[in-house]
Amino acid sequence: PEKYQSMPYSRVLEVYREHLSCELVYFPDPLLLHQGHMQWLFDHEGNRYLDFFSGIVTVSVGHCHPKVNAVAQKQLGRLWHTSNLFFHPPIHEYAEQLSALLPDPLKVIFFMNSGSEANDLAMLMARAHSKSTDIISFRGAYHGCSPYTIGLSNVGQFKMKLPSGEGCQSTMCPDVFRGPWGGSHCRDSPVQTIRKCSCAPGPTGQGGRCTPSNMWGACFFVGLLSTDCCQAKDQYIEQFKDTLSTCVGKSIAGFFAEPIQGVNGVVQYPKGFLKEVFQLVRERGGVCIADEVQTGFGRLGSHFWGFQTHGVLPDIVTMAKGIGNGFPMAAVVTTPEIAKSLAKSVLHFNTFGGNPMACAIASAVLEVIKEEKLQENSLEVGTYLLLKLAELRDEFEIIGDVRGKGLMVGIEMVKDKASRQPLPREEVNQIHEGCRRMGLIIGRGGLFSQTFRIAPSLCVTKPEVDFAVDVFRAAVSQHMERRAK
Ligand code: PMP
């Protein structure tokens, strides 16, 4: 890494405590980063870390990717800013590229600067179009921290303690691992962790009677035989209908979903669930919004967009984070009809949204994803990672679940497999710290911060996965030894 003189670590800590508002920092002695290159980070002492969280699922193609950097530098010397009052080709070129990646009729783009801003606008659109108020999101959802979106964000620590979220309704998250009805054989992941579930009896007659002692075997068999998510999905649908019945009036404005929940700890829903919910929402006059802030741009491997993995077509798609590889950029894409409804309600304007720098960078990101076949890499390397982690799950009593798709992976830590109680935060912290000491950066999520999240840049390789899994195994083993003492 490049060596440069800068503020000493002790002063950085003081400035952080005295002047900076951010409360969410990993580790008691937070990392002081000096440089990044692709999937690698370097701290102030020159230590190297494999970055398996990519700045919260954001650095999609690698830190300081040479091609993206070159494009950014070129644009820096050409034009930074238009305030959207004037035209500039990189903006229109990017709009054309992005719209080509979305199915009809999702063709009208609004550029924004962050995920919260994008979801704010999507809420406004849903209300303008439906002429209703209520918007539903899942418990455990994270859609932003702005005064509007905070009402949709239902992860414990982000829940607003002041009156907020007028017209926002939360509904039960169909979490197939932690939820009451199980059904984890029904999720779209190469790893099928099977737990006690309420699936309909299969030909073996075992499905409805899984007990903790036979839950892996019996349900697994039923899971293989069942093509649908049977009762678990249906039970969650009943909950959704119950929420609909509590909404104000006959119609609702919309429904927000992350195709896989990120902040909540890579939570997946039963297959077919979103499809049924979209139908119920539309029957009530609402629009369906896919929040692709974490799941878009090839992260899930099998598809470019997360909604495609559920076989649904949203009315509005919001995106941020990976769209700009870490440069502030976001977008809302919708139908001409919904865009018209918004225009009737407000003259929408955003000074920085889709500025020349952001658009040039986002174009380069798309080109890199295509040229380097990063979506394909996400599928291949992500599946390899998931299967290796599943072996660890079977090895350690405190790894309750491994799940995800492509390079969006969750490892849920539990006290023991039978109870599925979250592993106490202090213990999860120690394992987290252990990974960091051995040169691996991973993330955290879930209501109790009990889930490790892995979402590296999409360029990671299988040898790097081997390294990460070895480090994780060592960190968990060391923790088990400490626990045994
Ligand atoms: N939606 C999702 C799914 C997110 O994960 C986040 C950020 N964690 C947001 C929206 C908000 O994005 P931002 O922090 O850019 O406002």
Automatic annotation (TrEMBL):
Needed cofactors: pyridoxal 5'-phosphate
Reactions accelerated catalytically: 3-oxopropanoate + L-alanine = beta-alanine + pyruvate; 2-oxobutanoate + L-alanine = (2S)-2-aminobutanoate + pyruvate; glyoxylate + L-alanine = glycine + pyruvate; N(omega),N('omega)-dimethyl-L-arginine + glyoxylate = 5-(3,3'-dimethylguanidino)-2-oxopentanoate + glycine
Primary site of residence: mitochondrion
Gene Ontology BP terms: glyoxylate catabolic process; L-alanine catabolic process, by transamination
Matches recorded under Pfam families: Aminotran_3 (PF00202)
Cellular compartment(s): Mitochondrion
Any one GO molecular-function label of the UniProt entry: alanine-glyoxylate transaminase activity
Known function: Multifunctional aminotransferase with a broad substrate specificity. Catalyzes the conversion of glyoxylate to glycine using alanine as the amino donor. Catalyzes metabolism of not L- but the D-isomer of D-beta-aminoisobutyric acid to generate 2-methyl-3-oxopropanoate and alanine. Catalyzes the transfer of the amino group from beta-alanine to pyruvate to yield L-alanine and 3-oxopropanoate. Can metabolize NG-monomethyl-L-arginine (NMMA), asymmetric NG,NG-dimethyl-L-arginine (ADMA) and symmetric NG,N'G-dimethyl-L-arginine (SDMA).
Protein's name according to its UniProt entry: Alanine--glyoxylate aminotransferase 2, mitochondrial
